[in-house]
Amino acid sequence: MRRAGRAAAASRPPGWPRLAGLKANAKVYSNNEDLASAVNSGEVQGGVVDHYYWYRLRDEKTAAATKSALHYFTKGDAGALVDVSGAAVLNSSKHQAAAQAFLAYLASAPAQTVIANSQSYEYPLVAGVKSKENLPALDSIGTVAAVGDLGDDKDALQLLQDAGLLQ
Asked: DSSP letters of 31-58?
């Protein structure tokens, strides 16, 4: 962690106190599965993971043996993050048409039904396709930003490094 003077402290973003609190009080785990297990066992009181890690833990342990529960941040909270998974075709692909057809299939109702009813616990993207679980509606838990608005993550990475949460 870099030492910061008053000028740097004054220019810190609004989320800085939360990051500083995490650094001072949090235990860092090497992956989401380990964190979900640690919360479930009572090793730590809470953690931030994508919802599907908790559902997979519950499936592994059984509902009766699962001692933790999901909590969603309120809409508008900085923690109310909606991750985006994506797929694309490389310009260098020698099979452009086949790759485009595969992407079209992934976005189709049959493929989304397979995904939504798998152990991925992902949100289906096609209207009318129901998920395996009764997941809260995306618009009730956070704002889904346009992928182009997300940037290249350099600022977020730098912020986490400055806070001492990542190397």
From this structure: SHHHHHHHHHHTSSS-----HHHHHHHH
Cα 99 to Cα 89: distance, rounded to the nearest angstrom = 6
User: Do 166 and 30 form a contact (C-beta atoms < 8 A)?
Assistant: no
Q: What is the pLDDT along the chain (167 residues), one digit of tens a residue?
A: 333 444 455 577 777 888 888 888 888 888 999 999 999 999 999 988 889 999 999 999 999 999 999 998 887 776 777 777 789 999 999 999 999 999 999 999 999 999 999 988 888 889 899 888 888 887 787 666 666 676 777 887 888 888 888 76
Integer CA distances (angstroms), 146 to 82, 85, 125, 150, in order: 11, 12, 14, 7
